[in-house]
Model the fold of this input.
Amino acid sequence: MIPDAAEYGVDLAIDEREVERLLAVGPADVEPAEALTFARNVFVPLTTACRYTCTYCTYFDPPGEATLLSLEEVREICRRGADAGCTEALFTFGDDPDDRYTEIHATLDRWGYDSIHDYLRAACVVAIEEGLLPHANPGDQRREEMAAVAGVNASMGTMLETTADVPAHAGPRRKKPGRRLRTIEIAGGLAVPFTTGILVGIGEGPRDRAESLLAIRELHERYDHVQEVIVQPVRENERWDGHTPDVETLRRTVAMARAALPPEVSVQVPPNLAPARELVDCGIDDLGGVSPVTEDHVNPDYAWPALRELEAIAEAAGVPLRERLPVYDRYLPADLRPARFDGRPASERGWLPPAIREALGADDDAGERYRRLLGVDRPAVQSDDSTSRP
Ligand code: SF4
Done:
């Protein structure tokens, strides 16, 4: 039974036999991937406000201390990213600023924006203008909130973390699993290619991890929209003195994720937080976003490894390393899909909104950069498969 799921209208039935199957899975039961991928991104920490207070998190700042980037600052970060060859603007958030953040709301009001979503939309437009594809992580979203920004994002994401009710999420503004699941479901309904994941070591156990992965799988089976699932260990920091999960726990969890999810869903570990070299034989096929320009604002104590390190991880595993866009190949229209793609294309649901489709096909430096990465060398002709997103 997933806490709060019914309260948020999420109807999920977790099969107990599947949970038992996953609890028995180990690294020897899954196949290593034939290639590893990564995306080149810049972090854009639009705001450090957050309505929640997860006890392991160093990202959020309390009211009075939280920051809000101006659009000029967003433009500067994106320009540096584009100059460095990045393709993705990763908009990091806490969760929506609540009423305690009076200064953030006053600033938004002064700048002429009704809400943080209204402002995020404007920031994403800036990123597109500067030659990057937005991938926003604004936390729990209602349908109208996500719809307000989906039209200017190549993909979006939010971590499920866990379906368990853990003390690390406790407090007056408790992050609820049911609400997270509802956000993932809303993304499916809006045809948004979506990234989610589990956080390992915050008080959940192996059974909770299996249930979390099966919940993600079930939502993906309904909408075909989950492009990747991150397996992320919690790390010690100034707010969290719980332990970091050991390598064996991570190996079993990554293998469990690979066994739980269909092959078209990538399994990612962030190499600045997890010992990726020791996990490649457990089924990971993606190393996440790597920024040559900005630090990882969500985990600032842990520097991103250089691209050379990613190459070394792939070399040690004996597999090629390939750069990808923030939206996975299977969601691209046929004329933009790389020749190397040999998976199952996503069902025809209009995955790319017109603004992103236009950016990918544009006859400008950014368009050429995107298509060079995809191995497609001429501007794509607009097709009508991109009209269902807002
Ligand atoms: S983990 Fe996310 S939701 Fe929780 S406090 Fe940090 S920023 Fe907010």
Remarks:
- The two ends are 34 Å apart (CA to CA).
